Amino acid sequence: MIVTAHTARFTEPLRLSSGAVLPEFEIAYETYGELNAARSNAVLVCHALNASHHVAGTYAGDPDNVGWWDNMVGPGKPLDTERFFVIGSNYIGSCFGSTGPASTNPATGRPWGADFPVVTVEDWVAAQARLAERLGIERFAAVMGGSLGAMQALQWALSYPERVRNSIVIAATPRLSAQNIAFNEVARQAIMTDPDFHGGHYYDRGVVPVRGLRIARMIGHITYLSDDAMMEKFGRQLRRSERGFDFGVDFEIESYLRYQGDKFSTYFDANTYLRITKALDYYDPAADFGGDLSKAFARARADFLVVSFTSDWRFSSARSREIVRALLDNRRVVSYLEIDAPQGHDAFLLEDPRYHDALRAYFGNIAL
Amino acid sequence: MTELETIARWVAQGARVLDLGCGDGRLLRRLWQTKQALGYGVEIADAHVLGCIRNDVNVLQMDLEDGLAAFADKSFDVVILSETLQAIHRQEYLLREMLRVGREAIVSFPNFGYWRARIQIAIAGHMPVSKELPYQWYDTPNVHHCTLVDFEALCGKLGFSILERVVLTEGATVSTLPNLLGALALYRVTSPASTNPLTVPPQAPHQHRQQDQRRQPQG
Pairing with B153, which of A66, A197, A317, B27 sits 20 to 30 Å away (CA)? Predict the structure, then answer.
């Protein structure tokens, strides 16, 4: 499937949760499949921390750049683009095309840098709603996402109850734990204490806080894999024939983390990383309801599919069951899958027949 | 009369139903179609969970042995445990949980006191194998068999009232010597503490209509 990225420009200001106002913004997006005449077959796919609007397929002349959820979305895939019109949308604050810290601040004519406002999951959803209006979609057949994308799928059902028929919430948590926030804070500290960070205004200086980004990514990666998966993949295997008695790379896992960190630091923006992790930390739909998630979900009208993976310790199955409980308390139509997969949080990106068959069946039952 | 028909008869129009060990959801599907009962199934087996989704039935993949912590007190009109009681380890606990979350419970199980089972033990000298109990002793998921007499004694101990009992053999109702002649027993039970009204009011009718459309068979 050859795909093309688009950009939609919005000139009406967007008021953010922080009170700050984005005077104008762009959203990068891709679409797959055709919107039907009744406009009833649109599915919004929300991405997680380091992904983008490039959900599926490849670009012409660039066969190696495959969309991040290509095993889930496409012709004949569980989310079948022969039947559904699928939209991948890049959140604002990103570094992959939507307006973000590296974009030009219209007030100064220079990159926003540290002045780009902190955005929230609610803000992302509000911006996506503008995109939906632009594309002529009054009501989504489904909004779907994994991890941080799942928070957006949840929030869609809360911000725009009448505009979502199905909310598909995968590897989710209704709010971060103290431990989740702690990992994010270590990542942020790694970035902010990098001498090349310059308080977020590093674009002008022609430097990138590479060291901070590398460490942030290494920390993140540890939380995406289960202990078992890491042991299975790397064990205690040495990179060199024997121990070096120095601080070079001894173990395979060290080599892997360094590689992932290096790769990440070449394409990801540090200011974006700070803002995404903050958006994760802040997300808590129950906050306005005295911590009562059931009350928070009282306004939801969608049907829900919630999926968790037993080895996910970042957002454990227990957290997904909290969501299910809140939905049951509100008598929502809900199904919950707890997939006994060994890979940890990243399992939501992998192909598992139990997981994919269930998604395929669920989408098959959505009437158009 | 079949087990399914008996259960369907005991479920009121529009009831809120929880089906524990719901298999591929065929009972819930039938209760939706015939009684517009909004139901949820609990199932642990992946293949059954997939079957439920294919049948467009709400399913929650959870282990019954962990109890029913996902469900609020008195949040269901009926909680069903169909031919699953004998495979549960903590039966007393689960039965209590059923009447915590539901106003009534429907429990069915193969009667170990059925004469064919008795003969296999008493005369042939081996563990019963039958249509209702198709397993060999070494590969059975069933861990706690009981008879009508045993179950009724347990109900007494737990303070449950038996509202109705139907005993079936090969689709026919058994009224004479049920503990000897009945292959399958069905009970509708409640506990004195289970008569409180539901805590959450039912959904508005227009939402039910939406669900009607959504839950149409897909051909």
Answer: B27
